[in-house]
Design brief:
Blueprint (H helix, E strand, L loop, with lengths): L19 H12 L4 H5 L5 E4 L14 E16 L9 E9 L4 E7 L4 H6 L5 E11 L2 E5 L2 E4 L5 H6 L4 E4 L8 H11 L12 H6 L5 H9 L4 H32 L12 H8 L6 H14 L6 E6 L5 H14 L3 E5 L3 H15 L16 E5 L5 H13 L2 E6 L13 E7 L6 H8 L7 E6 L5 H7 L4 E5 L9 E7 L4 H16 L3 E5 L10 H4 L5 H5 L7 H10 L7 E4 L5 H12 L5 E4 L12 E6 L7 H8 L9 E7 L6 H11 L3 H11 L2 H6 L18 H17 L7 H21 L1
Parallel strand pairs: 4-6, 9-14, 9-15, 10-12, 10-13, 11-12, 13-14, 16-21, 17-19, 17-20, 18-19, 20-21
Antiparallel strand pairs: 1-8, 2-3, 2-5, 3-4, 5-6, 5-7
Helix pairs in contact: 7-8, 8-25, 8-26, 9-11, 10-11, 15-25
């Protein structure tokens, strides 16, 4: 948020020669910091106290760290090597300590002279580098360092007060260099325009923005940091909520055709056919949707529901209500497998009601068409014709529905399945297909904590389905520690055989397909500490299927399914599995959403630690969909104490998706979660923490809604308008980058 022209000065200006062109270039390329304002909003990640040292005991492997510690001893060794055959090679080993642990630093060759003179026992310094392992001990090789001399005027000036700010840094630019750069631009804070209305800031006792920026970069006490963060959190929450409130306000001004269901139409006929009664939750959510559909501005609703809570049924009833009112409804799925699956299950649920215009169709029937990218030309032409004439009331498809060629007779409702795979711009493209903006219903089976829903999907109203329909079975989940207890894995395959002998079926999920070439791009990727600890590549579908068919599952009908198969082959495999002609399906996460085989009761997830918490929960939702109980086995070779195993234990311990989504968020960087959303603005959060700051977000939403209702153009709030433009510029830039 570069708030005023003074803060929009590029860091590369000759004026700012303190940074120097090289530093400015690294800041732009590696940290995305291009202006004075960017740098002022690059906040410290944490603070070191002069008297209190970082815990060396907690160093993360393979990450860039900054530690403050004291030199315990330093030894210079000589050795012979190819470059220095006569024993003239030099290696300086320095041991540093902070009371909690010790860490070795190593310097080689000509790089030993300066540290040998400066890093004497008793010296305190800040060290930055990448943690690696040598001879089973953690070390930093050739770390950058900055001596902390208590008497040095410059050190005292640079690290003002007792708290040393530690900035998010990169290998090319250490935290203290960023700190020095920040010091040079701090005088500009006085020119920062405040985005918060005075009444809001004063009413909540928040610091003015210039003071908050000074205190976050140069705090004297922890209270300074707390005050600054409280203020800056409000900025982030409020500006983002104003952007969302303006989008909601603009949407509410759009005209839409009200679509009220008829008491004697296709919806009533469909409800009469249902072999079960709707749950209380389904009835409540349906009423919210029908109320929205009956208004003359577009519905924008997010429908969240656990896997198997009956979202598709609720969405289908909404689609049929729109058909009753003379409109068409489109269901958009993220993959062809899922689009075909939806098409199959919807036509099955509707029976003769899906046979409009055909022999056997009833008087209320409509036509249900499928439109995907891989359809043959003739079938595609036919489907497009049915849409443009209005013959087809319902269309189910993939992104192919968004193409320019696709025209509707009268598009009244768009249902988007699995929103997190689908961007705002795509949503808008499909909405543009209506004569007037159609109503929009977005479905997700990924439980989203309330605050994330307010932040990521803040332009949508939310409905939650949290009851499972009667007759759904519980799923037992267990972690199988394959490395510690190999006999547990053998028992897992016995359990799969037992399920098949009892007339059921099973999934085996693997992280990889197995026919990849050694992809040089992939090889160059940075590995995480846990990958380093475990050099084995993730298990692959093709290898595992082969081993199982020849080994523990010999004699069972084993098939494979993965994303690189031809769509027709994928569909054929899924049909055979759904029909019970296959006992065990070995697949990638292509089965994660929407595949519905009630007879599948067991799932074994190989290398389960390679999947995220929400993804494991999604996968697990594929079993126990019938009346027989489900079983999910999470196989991992990770040691018991690792974070990965704790994550798996959490998944095994609860079936509550909302609880798991909180755990997931707490364990991942906010940006990852928000970045999955539609745009960059959502991952521009720097101090706001989506889970902890629930109250701030909820209050900011209330305040933002009131501000926008009173002054939609924000004419009286120039500071807020500037901040909003900066946020939306970032959003637009992200769209362009994503192509």
């Amino acid at each position: 948020m570069d708030l005023v022209p003074a803060l929009e000065e590029p860091l590369k200006q000759p004026l700012k020669s303190v940074l120097g062109p090289a530093t400015a270039k690294v800041m732009a390329e590696h940290l995305g910091l291009r202006t004075t304002g960017d740098l002022l909003h690059h906040y410290p990640r944490r603070y070191e106290e002069r008297g209190q040292l970082t815990h060396l005991a907690d160093l993360p492997m393979d990450e860039h760290v900054t530690v403050v510690a004291q030199v315990a001893d330093a030894r210079l060794h000589t050795f012979a090597s190819a470059k220095a055959p006569r024993g003239k090679g030099q290696r300086l080993e320095v041991t540093i300590t902070d009371g909690s642990g010790r860490l070795q630093l190593v310097f080689f060759g000509n790089g030993v002279h300066k540290p040998h003179k400066e890093l004497l026992p008793g010296t305190r310094a800040m060290f930055a580098g990448k943690v690696s392992v040598f001879n089973r001990r953690l070390q930093l090789a050739h770390p950058a360092y900055e001596l902390l001399r208590g008497d040095s005027e410059e050190a005292v000036e640079t690290w003002a007060g007792t708290l040393i700010p530690i900035y998010p840094a990169t290998a090319k630019l250490e935290s203290w260099k960023i700190g020095k750069a920040v010091q040079t631009v701090l005088p500009s804070t006085g020119e920062a325009l405040d985005p918060l209305p005075d009444s809001l800031r004063e009413g909540r006792g928040l610091l003015p923005l210039p003071e908050a920026l000074l205190k976050i970069h140069r705090p004297h006490t922890k209270a300074d940091v707390a005050d600054a963060r409280a203020r800056l959190k409000w900025d982030e929450a409020f500006v983002l909520q104003v952007a969302l409130a303006r989008r909601r306000h603009a949407d509410s001004q759009l005209p839409a055709v009200p679509r009220a269901p008829r008491p004697d139409g296709v919806l009533a006929a469909f409800d009469d056919r249902l072999p079960f009664t709707l749950t209380e939750g389904q009835r409540k959510v349906s009423k919210e949707i029908f109320d929205d559909l009956a208004t003359d501005h577009p519905m924008h609703r997010l429908l969240q529901g656990e896997v198997g809570s009956g979202k598709t049924l609720v969405a289908l009833r909404a689609m049929l209500a729109v058909v009753d009112a003379g409109g068409q409804a489109a269901l958009l799925a993220p993959t062809e497998v899922l689009a075909q699956q939806h098409h199959r299950s919807i036509t099955e649920m509707m029976g003769e009601l899906a046979e409009g215009g055909m022999l056997g169709g009833t008087e209320h029937a409509t036509k249900v068409v499928l439109l995907t990218g891989s359809m043959g030309a003739a079938a595609r032409r036919h489907a497009l014709l049915d849409l443009v004439t209005g013959e087809a009331g319902l269309v189910i498809g993939t992104h192919a529905l968004i193409e320019d060629k696709v025209q509707f007779h009268d598009l009244g409702l768009v249902v988007v399945d699995e929103q997190h795979r689908f961007g705002v711009e795509q949503r808008d493209a499909l909405r543009g297909k209506g004569k007037q903006p159609p109503h929009l219903l977005v479905m997700t089976a990924t439980p989203i904590p309330r605050t994330v829903a307010m932040t990521v999907f803040g332009d949508l109203e939310t409905s939650v389905l949290d009851q499972l329909p009667a007759g759904r079975s519980p799923i037992a989940s267990h972690v199988v520690p394959a490395a510690d207890k190999p006999h547990f894995l053998a028992r897992a395959w016995e359990r799969v055989r037992e399920e098949v002998e009892n007339g059921h079926q099973a999934y085996v999920v693997c992280p990889r397909i197995g026919d990849e070439e050694d992809d040089p791009k992939r090889a160059g990727k940075k590995k995480s500490a846990e990958d380093e600890a475990d050099k084995r590549p993730p298990l692959a579908v093709l290898d595992v299927a082969d081993q199982l068919a020849k080994g523990p599952l010999e004699g069972l009908r084993v098939e494979v399914l993965h994303g690189r198969m031809h769509p027709d082959d994928k569909d054929a495999v899924m049909r055979r599995f759904a029909a019970g002609d296959t006992d065990v399906l070995v697949a990638t996460t292509v089965i994660e959403v929407g595949v519905n085989v009630p007879n599948a009761t067991a799932m074994v997830i190989m290398d389960a630690d390679r999947f995220g918490v929400s993804q494991l929960h999604q996968l697990r939702g594929r079993v126990g969909r019938g009346s027989a109980p489900g079983l999910c086995l999470l196989v991992s070779e990770m040691p018991e104490a690792s974070a990965a195993r704790q994550r798996l234990n959490a998944v095994a311990a609860t079936l509550d998706g909302f609880e798991l989504s909180r755990i997931d968020l707490e364990q991942r960087r906010e940006g990852d979660v928000l970045g999955q959303a539609q745009s960059g603005a959502r991952s521009s959060l720097r101090v706001l923490e989506v889970i902890e700051d629930e109250e701030v977000i909820a209050e900011a939403r209330r305040e933002a809604t009131a501000v926008v209702a009173a002054d939609p153009e924000l004419a009286g709030l120039p500071g807020l308008r500037t901040a909003l433009d900066a946020l939306l510029d970032e959003e637009r830039e992200q769209y362009l980058e994503k192509g």
